[in-house]
Amino acid sequence: MIRINNIVKTFEDTQVLKGITTVFEPGKCNLIIGRSGAGKTVLLKILVGLLRPSSGELHYDKINFLTLDKKSLRQLRMNMGMLFQGSALFDSMTVEENVRFPLDMFTSKTMKEKKMRVNECLERVNLTGNNDKFPSEISGGMQKRVGIARAIVLKPQFLFCDEPNSGLDPKTSILIDELIYSITQESKITTVVNTHDMNSVMQIGDNINLLADGLLVWQGTKEEVLDSKNEMLESFVFASPFLQKLKDRANL
């Protein structure tokens, strides 16, 4: 579980986050949604420690994240997995080497043990047998799955996904959503997804947090989206004609 309380972030004279308080629950896909400039990327960077808040509290279970020394922070980060927006694979490394990278960085496992774990993760994302291929030799969807395999290779308790469906076709996006969702439930991971994809909201939104102008303006589940009377949520979510049709049908 991740708990944040009254998180504020200011850059010079601009307050980007204005007192965000919420809980990201284990075994659930916790979504951060909002228009460009709403503050969702800044919030995600604070959660993983790339930015420090101007004020507020951030707890991982019972651990106060903002007071950790370097050694303790490194230990906690070994329990974090990150799926980047562009997959962020190393072009000069094979699929196996990319997935193995966190094991090389953070563990003292033998090469045999590392290879076994890599193969387990590649099997989990349906990429068995692609170990020796380079990122340029596989599709965008496969690259994203390699990114997921790398994110879970250390068996993290916390998984962060930044726009996981960016640049993917609708069919592949659904497969990535389903993969993230099933891994989250299987391992009881606390998963946080930064997205503007409304199909993802309706597919995997166990706990949805809508940001607008640096404020948390709505919280709920995917089931509650269709019945919400929140004007900001409606204007954001139902900009999609497909989802507007779903709501119209629900109101019949």
Please specify the SSE layout and strand pairing.
Blueprint: E1 2-11, E2 14-24, E3 28-33, H1 40-48, E4 55-60, E5 63-64, H2 70-77, E6 80-83, H3 95-106, H4 111-124, H5 140-152, E7 158-162, H6 170-187, E8 190-194, H7 198-204, E9 207-212, E10 215-220, H8 222-225, H9 231-237, H10 241-250
Parallel strand pairs: 3-8, 3-9, 6-7, 7-8
Antiparallel strand pairs: 1-2, 1-4, 4-5, 9-10
Helix pairs in contact: 3-4, 3-5, 4-5, 5-6, 6-7
Explain how this protein is built:
The chain has helices at 40-48, 70-77, 95-106, 111-124, 140-152, 170-187, 198-204, 222-225, 231-237, 241-250, and strands at residues 2-11, 14-24, 28-33, 55-60, 63-64, 80-83, 158-162, 190-194, 207-212, 215-220. It has 252 residues and is an alpha/beta fold. Helix 4 packs across helix 5. The model has no long low-confidence stretch (mean pLDDT 90). 40% of the residues lie in helices and 24% in strands. The protein has one domain: 3-Layer(aba) Sandwich (Rossmann fold), CATH 3.40.50. The chain is globular, with a radius of gyration of 19 Å. It has ten helices and ten strands. The strands form two sheets. It has a six-stranded mixed β-sheet. Strand 4 (55-60) and strand 5 form a beta hairpin.
